[in-house]
Amino acid sequence: MGKTFWKDVVDDLRRLYETKEGYDTIIIAGEEPDIEEIYAHALILRTRSSYFRSALSAEWAERANNGYLVLKKPNINPLTIKIIMKFLYCGMVDLDGHENEVILELLVAADELLIQRLIDFVQEFLIKNSNKFLQQELVRMLHFIDHNDKFDEIREAYLDAICENPNLLFESDEFLTLEEDTLKLILKCDNLTMKENVIWKQLVRWGNAQRMMLENNMMDDDIKNVDINALGKILQELIKFVRFHQIDREEFMKEVWPFRSLLPETLIADILRCYLETGAIPLYNTFLVRWGNFKIDSGLIDKEIALLFTKWIDKKAIDNSKGATVSRIHNNHSDYAVGCDESHGPSFGDGPDLHVPNNGNIWKFKAKTYPKLGISGSLTISDYEVFQIVNVIEFPNQDDYEDKF
Q1: Of 130, 122, 30, 42, which Cα lies nearest the Cα of 82?
Q2: Which residues contact 102 (CB under 8 A, 6 or more apart)?
Q3: How far apart (Å, rounded) are the C-alpha atoms in residues 212 and 358?
Q4: 232, 275 in Cβ contact below 8 A?
Q5: Which of the four pLDDT bands, split at 50, 70 and 90, describes residue 132?
């Protein structure tokens, strides 16, 4: 018969944490006026954290005259250190009762002290409650993910949330207080679900607000009263991330043309060329199509499926005359996404695993390259479409565009 008494161990360690009996370490946390001495036991800290294992080692630790180990952490406030100490002693942490600022400080501190389990827990909490945090402290959270790029999971989750619901940010007054680098981070997102002309209007509004704050004037949205030169200096770096070629001609003339002096002449000429020439490919300011600008001419797939295809595509160069292709077949019972090459028509795998003989409507499947596709030996096709993937390339004279700024 055997039994593990985990609760007894945790209770005893919690009692030790609370009483501080036999402590040998003093952590001086925070700065005046919020500074406090936290008492702890070096053995427990060194056992639970690789950071403390080094910081409290004989080579690094500082000892006071009374023999106590002393560690100064002025960049971590006392409350945060106490939360971390309770976690190290008892394995306990409760974030529900703390202010948002404390939770963010805890994550940064846990990262500094190399406490990975606490890092993972706080990140999970922030992601799970992302809607609440964005509703309560939108700009603070966006600035946080911009300033702390090591927290990839949080950054991706919060950017995705903004990209899916951009009005939460762009139609709020807080948007005008957004830092330039943070706004740039959002403008780089391909999955931002806003039309480009709306993005441009909001960018001008943001730039005008920054200009007014610099000049200590009242906000004025009237284009006639905008100092174009001052606005140009403010928007200089951000303009590079606006996908002007994805703006409809009428919208461009209405929303962008009044500010054309802010754009390089080469870019303006290229945009006008693309409006006038059927099938013209942009030479400047080349980007993937932003989700908010995405249009699909298909009878079988909608925008969401087309965007899913773009996630699947490997953006490596392919040496053939037509480029990579993706097909979607609509059969009478289910839908299957397949690839094809330029010589065999719609097919999948080297077998080919999936193919249509004699240009008929009965498609055959035999596993060879792929062990299992979840498709029966044959299926009847009512229709199919083939989409060509066009790689967006950077032309050498793109430098002319960069030099303008």
Answers
A1: 30
A2: 79, 80, 83
A3: 69
A4: no
A5: very high
Distances (CA, A) of 304 to 90, 315, 398: 47, 19, 31
Select from 203, 157, 206 the least CA-distant residue to 177. Answer: 206
DSSP 228-283: HHHHHHHHTTTGGG--GGGS-HHHIIIIIGGGGGGS-HHHHHHHHHHHHSTTPPPS
DSSP for residue 358: G
Percent of the chain with pLDDT over 70: 72
- Whole-angstrom Cα distance, residue 337 to residue 349? 12
**Per the structure block, which two tokens stand in for 405?**
């700024």
Six-digit token string for 227? 């100092």
Question: Which two tokens mark 279?
Answer: 């099938």
Buried/exposed 202-219: b ≥16 CB within 10 Å, e otherwise? bbbebbbbbbbeeeeeee
At 293, is the pLDDT very low, low, confident or very high (cuts 50, 70, 90)? low
For residue 289, what pLDDT is reported? 80
User: Is the pLDDT assigned to residue 396 strictly greater than 60?
Assistant: no
Q: In what order do the strands lie in the sheet with 362-365?
A: 345-346, 335-341, 325-331, 378-388, 362-365, 354-355
What are the angstrom distances between the C-alpha of 83 and each of 8, 34, 92, 104, 332?
21, 16, 9, 13, 59
* 52 and 46 Cβ atoms separated by less than 8 Å: yes
Q: What is the mean pLDDT of the chain?
A: 82
User: Would you state the pLDDT for residue 224?
Assistant: 58
Encoding tokens for residue 305?
């499926």
pLDDT band per the 50, 70, 90 thresholds, residue 136: very high
CA distance linking residue 267 with residue 284, whole number of Å: 6
Structure tokens at 139: 């700009």
Using one digit for the tens of pLDDT, what is the confidence trace for 72-93? 999 999 999 999 999 999 999 9
Structure confidence at residue 221 (pLDDT): 54
Residues 30-44: b if buried by 16+ CB within 10 A, e if exposed = beeeeeeebbbbbeb
H/E stretch holding 131: helix 130-136
Q: Which two tokens stand for residue 145?
A: 């993910």
CA distance 276 to 46: 70
Mode of pairing for the β-strands spanning 362-365 and 354-355: antiparallel
Pick 64 or 108 by higher pLDDT: 108
